[in-house]
Amino acid sequence: CETCSKEAAKYRCPRCMKYSCSLLCVKKHKLALSCNGVRDKTAFVSVNEFTDLHLLSDYRFLEDVGRTADAAARHCTVHSPATKRLLYCLRNKARGCNIELKTLPVGFTKRRENSTTFSSVENKFYWHLKLVFPHCHAEYTLKGVPDDKTLADILKPYIDPVESDPVVCQRLKIYTASPQSDVQILMKIENRNRNSVRYNELDASRSLLDNLKGKVIIEYPTLFVVLKTLKKDMVVLGQ
After folding, report:
1. CA–CA separation, 208 vs 211, rounded Å?
2. Could you tell me which of 154, 128, 147, 142 has the C-alpha nearest to residue 210?
3. What is the pTM of this model?
4. Which domains does the chain have, with CATH numbers?
């Protein structure tokens, strides 16, 4: 048993492949490793280790995906006139701001997450926004971000040494300890080949709307906050 190291192992976890001797040790290993005990159907398997069982598992996984997609396509909200009208209005308003906004079919995670709205009274977008800090493996989701807010103000609660939340600041201390001139905000350019990924550099002093103009957005913007000295594989367009 890899948990107590006393008894002979009887069970093996389908997810992390750890050996356990009893139900108590199974529960302990799940708690210690944050393991849910469910086999990872999408885990990488090398060609040399690939067997008929893996092939059957992949086939069943694709069948499950097909059933889920079919069920989503039959959902009443997909064919709801109100939903279609709302999405059309959202894309049309974005087009008027020189932003090509693309929406995904119901069933996709980004479609389900997206909470972007447009206020006709204020004539402004309130964006669903995702911030990714790759050097700390951290992601934060913001809702209702007004399009006239500058990127610098959006990032203040996260990387500003004075105004940031203490818990967030501790997690992102590699950013807060670095000079602001070293911080770079990037956004992935859509509709490019997978082997030719490029990023646009955004201007922190300008508003979110100004930075999004002339760009393709799939559901909502995802901003990558990086440090110039540590950025390696993220190529900015034009470099």
Report:
1. 5
2. 147
3. 0.63
4. 11-62 (no CATH), 77-227 (3.10.20.90)
